[in-house]
Specification:
binds flavin-adenine dinucleotide; 408 residues; five-stranded parallel beta sheet; seven-stranded mixed beta sheet; 13 helices; globular
Length: 408
């Protein structure tokens, strides 16, 4: 059976590698960028315990490679920028597993190396669509440095081409995105904090929030948010050093040492801040009349508040691998039934994760009270949801022993 994967990002690499180890599948993975091109290298990622558990159950070797490239995310603390601590949660209180924190470029490097030989880089997809015979099969035409190429009779097309998915544009007419009225900037810098910043922390001044943690080797990732008008771009005057200093400096007390170091760092003339706006998009899992599966951001672009974007890309890829492997083990080679199984296992889960991520963004919105909002996060109801988020990954994992899967 022929499987074509569009995109070799987080979900693409996990699914390409996993499917390549299943018997009877011919895998092609087409990636737009050249090898070694990590467009988002100025970013750190914290990946939730749910992805760690899902990947350990599905591909323990790959999970081990990410262990080696990351630091453990063990704790989540929320304070005010004057140093008042509001929330301090060891992740072990809500999950048997910790998370990961690492550079985005390192995650891509590890994942792409682990799918070596499966990925064709530098591909520009020119056209894709359903074959005319009504079978649900698809075709893809693309070009690369060697010229034009075509794959037809594709049994399963997997769209893992990110938030602005070309595949979803073609098959579903695009992705409806919704802004939530929050600007976000990020920067990744060498660690000169002298131990001030280590594990995952957030600091509020009103609804303006800083977030930071250390990632290997020796860098600190800082992200900042503040409210902006719902439908507009981020005004330039809010991006200046003076505006940022005012946004995060507490009025009635001096900033804590951590907050001072971060404010000085982001306001330094040398700082390189990358700007975006927080948004989410409507979930879609597969096409009703073509054998197209969406995973990761092409399926469910979500607000980043709970660090679930890459996390769900991994969890979703693992869930899809398990569903396909289980269907195949039961002798079922009907791709429509695979898609139905994946959609059934993912739709409620994704709905919950997206809604919970949005709910947890309350403290970022204009007029919000971070103290009241963060104290709510200490309530049993919120902690129960966090347990559900980090642990309810569904039926993930292979019935086949690791040695047998590695042999293909
Ligand atoms: C600033 C920022 C911070 C974030 N922080 C976190 C975090 O802390 N934790 C977390 O879990 N998530 C985080 N995310 C979200 C996370 O990075 C994404 O959700 C995740 O990368 C999605 O994975 P994916 O596999 O769906 O897509 P991607 O990783 O984006 O991969 C898509 C791949 O498809 C390729 N591609 C795109 N179009 C085409 C095409 N037409 N043809 C071929 N290839 C194509 C791209 O080059 C890329 O390699 C953050 C995102 C941003 C922007």
């Amino acid at each position: 059976m022929r499987v074509v994967i569009i995109g070799a990002g987080v979900a693409g690499c996990v699914i390409a590698r996993g499917l390549s180890r299943m018997p009877g599948l011919e895998i092609h993975c087409l990636e737009r960028v050249e090898p070694g091109d990590h467009a988002e290298s100025g970013t750190g990622l914290n990946i939730g315990p749910n992805a760690v558990q899902a990947l350990r159950a599905t591909d323990p070797e790959l999970a081990g490679l990410i262990d080696d490239a990351s630091l453990e995310w063990k704790n989540w603390r929320v304070s005010l920028t004057d140093g008042t601590v509001l929330f301090d949660l060891p992740l072990k209180d809500v999950s048997p597993s910790n998370g990961w924190r690492l550079r985005w470029s390192e995650l891509y490097r590890v994942l792409r190396e682990s799918a070596e030989g499966l990925i064709r880089y530098g591909c520009t997809v020119e056209e894709m669509g359903k074959t005319a015979d009504g079978s649900g099969k698809t075709f893809v035409r693309w070009s690369d440095k060697d010229g034009a190429h075509e794959l037809t009779d594709i049994d399963l097309l997997i769209a893992v081409d990110g938030r602005f998915s070309q595949t979803r544009n073609i098959f579903a007419g695009g992705v409806n995105s919704r802004q939530i009225g929050v600007a976000i900037f990020r920067t990744l810098i060498p660690d000169t904090s002298d131990g001030l910043i280590t594990d995952y922390e957030q600091w509020f001044n009103g609804p303006n929030r800083l977030l930071a943690y250390r990632v290997p080797p020796g860098h600190i990732y800082i992200a900042g948010t503040f409210p902006i008008p719902l439908d507009g771009e981020t005004p330039d005057e809010l991006k200046t050093a003076e505006a940022l200093r005012a946004a995060y400096t507490p009025r009635s007390a001096p900033p804590s040492d951590q907050a001072k170091w971060m404010i000085d760092t982001i306001c330094s003339p040398d700082s390189e801040l990358h700007w975006a706006r927080i948004q989410e998009s409507e979930a879609r899992h597969c096409e009703p009349d073509a054998n197209v599966l969406y995973l990761g951001d092409s399926s469910n672009g979500m607000v980043p508040t709970l660090g679930q974007g890459a996390t769900q890309a991994i969890e979703g890829a693992c869930a899809a691998l398990s569903a396909i492997e289980n269907r195949m083990a039961a002798g079922d080679t009907d791709v429509r039934s695979w898609l139905a199984a994946i959609e059934a296992s993912r739709s409620e889960r994704i709905r919950f994760v997206m809604e919970f991520s949005l709910e947890a963004s309350d403290t970022l919105l204009a007029g919000s009270d971070p103290v009241e909002g963060t104290l709510k996060k200490r309530s049993p109801a919120f902690l129960e949801k966090l347990k559900r988020l980090y642990n309810d990954i569904g039926t993930i994992g292979s019935a086949r022993p690791e040695e047998e899967r590695a042999a293909g």
